[in-house]
Design goal:
The complex is a heterodimer. Chain A is mostly helical. Chain A has 11 helices and 2 strands; from the N terminus they run αααααβαααβααα. The longest helix of chain A has 27 residues. Chain B has 4 helices and 3 strands. The chains are: A mainly alpha, B mainly alpha.
Chain lengths: 241, 125
C-alpha cells in the first residue's frame, strides 16, 4: 500500500518516510500537511528531487523540530475504557460458555490477574507509545511477538491460576456482561475522535492532504465497535459447537 | 584584479551558516516572499546554493521566534506557496543583526589587512 499525499514532485518513498517520522514524533496532521506542501512547492518550482534539496527525510524532520501535539485525552479515561472493554468481553464469553454447559460462571484468580495485567499493559502502551511504535515499524517480528506474547501470557495465567473466588449464575452474569459491553461501546463512541488526518493548507490546492482509501476509513469507523465485534465473533463458536 | 562571485561560487559551509539568518531576514525585509524565492535571491546575490534542508528549518525557527509571520497563498496552476513577512520584532532583529554583522565583517577585514604581529604566541605544551 502506498501513501498518496498529493505531492507529485516529491519521491513517494521520501514523502512516506517523512510523514512516518513526523507521525512517530506525534506532530499533528495539519502541521505535517503544511510541511509536505512546502516541500512539494519547493520541488515543483526548483525542479530538484526532495532527496537532493532536503536530504534524508528523517534528518529533515528532525531539523524542522516541530512540537508534538498536546495529548488528546487523559490516560485514566483510556485505561478505564480499555479495562471495561476487557472485563465485559471476558464476562460475556465466560457466561456464554457456562450457560451452554449449564454450569455457574466461576470467577477465578486468573481472571482477575488477566484484567489487572491488561490494564497495566495498556497504561504502558499509552505511556511508551512512541518508542513502541518505532520498534514495531523497524522490525516486523516485534509486531508478531507483541501480538502473541500477551495472549500466551493471559492464557497461561487463566489456565494456571484457577482458584475460584466467586461463583455467579450464568444468566445474570451474561446480562451483566452484555450491559457492560453496551456501556463500553457507548463510552468508546462518545470518546474523543483520535483520528488526526494529514491535511495540507487550504490554499495549497490539495498538496499535503493524504488521500485515505475506503479500507482505512472503514477501520477508523470500526474502532469503537471493536470489542463488541470481537466478543460476538468469539462467542459464535461457543454457541454453535 | 577583482574576483567575481557568481551563483556557482561555493563558500565554506561554516561561513554561510553564520551569515544565513541575517541574509534571509534581509531578503524578507524587502516584502513578503516564499522559500524558493529566498533561495533564488541568495543564489543570484552570489551567496551560493542554499539547500531546502537548511533554509526551511531556519524559516521555521524565525516563525517560532515570532520574527516572521506566515500566510499560504494559492499558486497559479502550481501548488500554493507559504509566504513569509517580517513582524515588527523581525524588523528590529534584522537591523540589529545587520549592524552586528557589519561590525564583525569590518573588524575581520581590517584585521586581515594589517600584520598580525600583535597576536600573542602560544607556548608548546
Amino acid at each position: 500500500m502506498t501513501i498518496d499525499t498529493r505531492t507529485p514532485h516529491v519521491e513517494t518513498d521520501w514523502s512516506e518516510a517523512f510523514l512516518l517520522e513526523l507521525r512517530l514524533r506525534g506532530v499533528d496532521g495539519r502541521r505535517i500537511g503544511a510541511a509536505l506542501a512546502e516541500v512539494e512547492a519547493h520541488c515543483a518550482e526548483s525542479g530538484e528531487s526532495a532527496r537532493s534539496a532536503f536530504g534524508d527525510p528523517v534528518t529533515y524532520a528532525d531539523d524542522l523540530d516541530l512540537a508534538p501535539a498536546a495529548p488528546s485525552s487523559d490516560l485514566a479515561r483510556e485505561v478505564a475504557t480499555t479495562g471495561l472493554g476487557l472485563v465485559s468481553m471476558l464476562l460475556t464469553l465466560g457466561a456464554v460458555a457456562a450457560w451452554r454447559t449449564g454450569d455457574d460462571l466461576e470467577l477465578t484468580t486468573g481472571l482477575v490477574a488477566v484484567v489487572a495485567l491488561a490494564a497495566a499493559g495498556s497504561a504502558l502502551l499509552v505511556r511508551f507509545a512512541e518508542a513502541l511504535l518505532r520498534a514495531l515499524v523497524r522490525r516486523w517480528w516485534v509486531a508478531l511477538v507483541g501480538c502473541i506474547a500477551p495472549i500466551a501470557l493471559f492464557v497461561a495465567v487463566l489456565v494456571l491460576a484457577r482458584q475460584t473466588l466467586l461463583t455467579v449464575p450464568a444468566v445474570p452474569a451474561l446480562g451483566a456482561g452484555v450491559a457492560l459491553l453496551a456501556v463500553h461501546t457507548a463510552l468508546a463512541l462518545r470518546g474523543p475522535d483520535l483520528s488526526d488526518p494529514v491535511i495540507g493548507p487550504d490554499e495549497a490546492g490539495g498538496a499535503g492532504t493524504m488521500r485515505e482509501d475506503a479500507a482505512s476509513r472503514g477501520l477508523d469507523r470500526l474502532g469503537p465497535w471493536l470489542t463488541l465485534v470481537l466478543t460476538v465473533v468469539m462467542a459464535l463458536p461457543l454457541l454453535l459447537l | 584584479m577583482a574576483t567575481t562571485y557568481s551563483s556557482e561560487t561555493s563558500w565554506p559551509t561554516e561561513w554561510l551558516r553564520g551569515a544565513l539568518s541575517v541574509c534571509v531576514l534581509h531578503v524578507i525585509a524587502d516584502g513578503p516572499t516564499y522559500g524558493y524565492a529566498v533561495a533564488s535571491t541568495l543564489a543570484d546575490a552570489g551567496l551560493g546554493t542554499i539547500k531546502g534542508g537548511t533554509l526551511y528549518p531556519l524559516l521555521g525557527r524565525l516563525e517560532e521566534a515570532g520574527l516572521v509571520s506566515v500566510e499560504w497563498r494559492a499558486g497559479d496552476g502550481g501548488p500554493g506557496r507559504k509566504f513569509y513577512s517580517l513582524t515588527d520584532a523581525g524588523r528590529a532583529e534584522h537591523e540589529r543583526q545587520a549592524e552586528h554583522w557589519r561590525a564583525f565583517a569590518d573588524l575581520t577585514t581590517s584585521f586581515l589587512d594589517s600584520p598580525a604581529h600583535a597576536a600573542p604566541t602560544r607556548k608548546a605544551p
